[in-house]
Amino acid sequence: MTDAEARAQHAGHAHQFEDMEQQQEADFLGIWLFLVTEIMFFGGLFAAYAIYRWLYFAAFDGGSHILDIKLGAVNTMVLLGSSLTMALSVRSAQVGNRRALVGFLIATMILGGVFLGIKAYEYDQKFVEHVVPSLDWAPEGATLARLAPGGLDHAQIYFFFYFAMTGLHAIHMVIGMGLLLWLVLRARKDEFTAHYFAPVEVVGLYWHFVDIVWIFLFPLLYLIGGRY
Amino acid sequence: MPHPIVPQKTYVMVFLGLIGLTILTTGVAFIDLGPLNTVAALAIAFSKMLLVILFFMGVRSSSGLVRVVLIAGFFWLALLIAFTMSDYRTRSWTPTPDSWSTSAPPTHP
User: Counting one residue from A and one from B, how many pairs have CB atoms under 8 Å apart?
Assistant: First the structure.
C-alpha cells in the first residue's frame, strides 16, 4: 500500500475508535437513536391527530376537501424522487465517484426546493381561501359550504393540525437542505472517499426519515373524507 | 458494518414501486370502500415506509443493534397511540359519577 492509499484509508478516522468499522457502527447507532426521538416527536402530533380525527370526524373530512389532492400527490412524488437521488448520492460516495456524488446531492436539493415551493404555494392558497386558523379564519362561499357540516370551530382544529404537521415537516426539510449544502461544499473539497463518507450516509438517513413522515401526512391530511 | 453496494437498478425499481403505490393510494381515495378507505390508505403508507426503510435506508443489511433501536422506537409510538386511544374511546362506556361533576357539588349526608 502506498502512502497516499494509507492516508486515504485513514481519512476521517477519529482516534477514539478502534477502527473504521467500529466508528461506522457508532455513527449509525447515533443517527438511529436521533431518528427514534424524532419518531416520538412527530408521534405526539400523530397521536393527537388520531384523537381529533376520531372526535371531529366530519370536520376533518370537510377540511381535507379544501386541500388540493393533485398538488399533494405531485409533492409526494417529488419527495420520493429526492429520496431516490439521496440514495444514489450515498451509493456514489460508496463507489468513490465524487462527480456523481455532487450531482446527486444537488439534484436532491433541487427536488427538496421544488417540494418547498409547492408547499409555499399551498400555504398561500390557504390565505386566499381564509382557512388559516387564528390568523385568517373567515371561510366563505364554497369553502364555507364544505366546512360548515362538521362545525367551523372543529374545522379550524383540522387546519391547526394541517399547519402544525406540515409546518414541522417543512422545517425539517429546510434543515435537511442546509445539511445537503454542507455536504456539497465538503464533497467539492474532496473530503469524502470510498472509505469515509459517514456524513453523507447520516444526512441521507435523516432525509429518508423526513420523507417517511410525509408518506403518512399525505393520506392523513389530503386523502381522508373520500372524493367519490 | 459497511453496507454492501446496491445496484442502481434496485434503487430505481424501489422508486418506481413507491410512485406506483402513491398513484394507487390517490386512486383509492376516489373509490367508496367505507371504513376500508382508511385501512387501505394506512396499509399503503406502511408498505411505502417499509420500502424506504429497508432499501433506501439500508436496514436490509444493517446490524441487529440498529434494528432493535428502530423496532423499539416504533413499539413506543404504538404504545403512545394505543393507550391514548383506549382512554378516549372507552370514556363513554361508564357514566361519570355525579359526585365528579363540578356543576353539582357533592351533598353531605
Answer: 137
